[in-house]
Known about the structure:
Elements: E1 17-18, E2 21-23, E3 26-28, E4 33-39, E5 54-61, H1 64-78, H2 84-87, H3 90-105, H4 108-119, H5 123-151, E6 154-157, E7 160-168, E8 171-175, H6 183-194, E9 198-202, H7 210-221, E10 227-230, H8 234-243, E11 249-253, H9 256-265, E12 273-277, E13 282-286, H10 292-304, E14 314-320, H11 321-336, H12 358-371, E15 375-376, E16 384-385, E17 388-389, E18 392-395, H13 402-405, E19 412-418, H14 421-430, E20 433-434, E21 436-440, H15 444-454, E22 460-463, E23 479-480, E24 483-484, H16 489-495, E25 497-505, H17 508-520
Parallel strand pairs: 1-5, 8-9, 8-11, 9-10, 11-12, 13-14, 13-21, 14-19, 18-19, 21-22
Antiparallel strand pairs: 2-3, 4-5, 6-7, 7-25, 12-24, 15-18, 16-17, 20-23
Helix pairs in contact: 1-8, 3-5, 3-7, 4-5, 4-7, 5-6, 6-16, 8-9, 10-11
The structure holds glyceraldehyde-3-phosphate.
Amino acid sequence: MAAATDSLPxxxxxxxxxxxxxxxxxxxxxxxxxxxxxxxxxxxxxxRNDEGGTVLxxxxxxxxxxxxxxxxxxxxxxxxxxxxxxxxxxxxxxQAILSFRDRMLAKRELVCRLLMWEIGKTWPDxxxxxxxxxxxxxxxxxxxxxxDRESSRFQFAGGLVAQIRRAPLGVTLCMxxxxxxxNETFTTLIPALIMGNTVVVKISRHGELFWDAxxxxxxxxxPAGVANIINGRGRQIIAPAVxxxxxxxxxxxxxxxxxNQIKLAHPQPHRxxxxxxxxxxxxxxxxxxADLDVTVAECVKGALSFNGQRCxxxxxILVHKSRAQEFTKAFAAKVDSLVRGMPWDPKVSITPxxxxxxxxxxxSLIDEAVKMGGKLVNxxxxxIEGKLFHPAIVSGVDLxxxxxxEEQFGPVVPIREFxxxxxxxDYIVNSPYGSQASIFGNDPVMVxxxxxxxxxxxxxxxxxxxxxxxxxxxxxxxRKASAEGTLSVFDALRSFSIRTxxxxxxxxxxxxxxxxxxxxxxxxxxxxxxxx
Length: 532
Ligand code: G3H
């Protein structure tokens, strides 16, 4: 596997791609509408459209009927739990994932270039996303072997002998976000597949074309219908398919509004399982004795890595009034020194935003915050150039403003000073979100006390460091409107399966039948074979 520091081959442009879809083991090139995929990055050698964007190609924009075809293909492969994939031995599924991983590795450079062009990820970040995904696959394979080893043991209780294994749930709809369209989608797709579910992936609204480079790998690694990859406008195609009742599991990383719409469309919500990672408003709390250098460096990374487009980004900075002035000055100096430009330039960290409406939205948040008494700290540097939004810092933000309440998901950093930790606690307790927080400070008594005030509000507290999801072996979850279920290498295998057991009386007859099944290897489920 190449390191995430590979330099970009001379000219970064990708070949034009006419995206395809994969349904029931067949790659389809026509029979649906298409939409143009336009990058907001530009290169002197690349052709540009009338609005100044770089046209990368087209992506399928399928309708509700075609989407239903994909759901039906997954339902046929599931076959009410009797399909080859859901009943396969773990070893067979591991082999399929391994062969997919190797085919995917062969496409590394093209996938990374497409990520860079489509969503403006810098070249090192695009590679890091790819490599992290391969690592996630490898870690999942190791974890599933461990799970298999543990499940092959027999348990004895109440006069019974039992084997408890994990079985798949059914047809799974996987939808990832545009900021990590590869990695985050795969953190649900891979565990769903390895546990024996069949899957339909609905590609995110940006970060679409790299999927095309992987279609053959999916087709050639999995039985027909096990992995179906489609693209279209979610609002038009998902609800009718969910209403059919043929989708058993929703794995969605996006907004709570969309999650609610999808969940409410199911005819029997009680049997529609969901694993969700949604919005967040992660605060940084800066205490009076915080180390300035560490705090500034972590807050810059935390608030502005990938232009602030991370669910784990720091989206509100709460600083003690005794440090507010020096923190804001040092923070603004560092933010203003970030180089802005195109994602293939090795010096650049701030890049064009993929969402065409985002600059206007961010500007409206700033305008309102300023009207409510806030101050734009860096007016010389904070500007909009097309889709390149130069980071803006707003201090004195009113906690009732949209900038303090909504997930901005972009390069605008709100700062609010506090004099009493009760104000911080009130803000966090009353937030509709509950993902993570960062505490910057060094007094064990004060930091320890604040940890205890926050542990029932968020699911990860980072000390003197930014918020982040990784490493992916750690639980990634949230309270309130931020998540449902938990994702990590370990948890995802459990989220996409259900414990299922075979039990017999622990008497002579019970032992005889179990021994006989094991000796004859006559069951794929009840077995003491372990995957090595
Ligand atoms: O967008 C949410 C991602 O899971 C964040 O992951 O903290 O590793 O950037 P990260």
